[in-house]
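Following up on my earlier thread - several people asked me to post the actual chain instead of describing it. Fair enough. Here it is, all 177 residues.
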Amino acid sequence: MSGVNTRSAFILAFIFFGVFITTEAQTSTPAPNTISVPCALRSNTSCSECLQNVTCLWCTPTKQCLDYPVRNILPPRSVCPLNDARWGLCWVNFQILIITMSVLGGVIIISILVCCFCCCKCERVGNKREDAKVERQTRARKSRQKAKRTEMQMRHDEIRQKYGVEKENPYARMDDH
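Reply from S.P.:
Thanks for posting it. Predicted structure:
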């Protein structure tokens, strides 16, 4: 069980480290004089120069620096195809970004489900052990009660014999005694 927890912790640490590195790379401070230049004026320059402004989108085949279409989550194909669009970092295109985020999301969801399954399974195993222990205790208690009951029955039979009250048929009616 500790192996699953160790692997899960390692995976989560790796993901957080990756997110930290990515955000560090994206939060590099651009030069103050270049941030006010509109994206269209940075066309036909370079990707890194265009992406100094976070509102710009670089289209590789046309070498255009465009304003990011904020009304859409992803830039439409008419603006720039996903595999050619760059935003934030020049080496990450939207197509790879979408695939990577989908895979990471799937891995996180699957790891959460596996952890939940393992926790529930271990809890059920613990309950089976506890149920078996309770069952053993119940059997021991019943056997002690049965032994006491037979001992008490023997004692009562001895007393009946001593005073001459025999119990031949417990269901017989007492007619003329």
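The chain has three helices and four strands. That should answer part of your original question.
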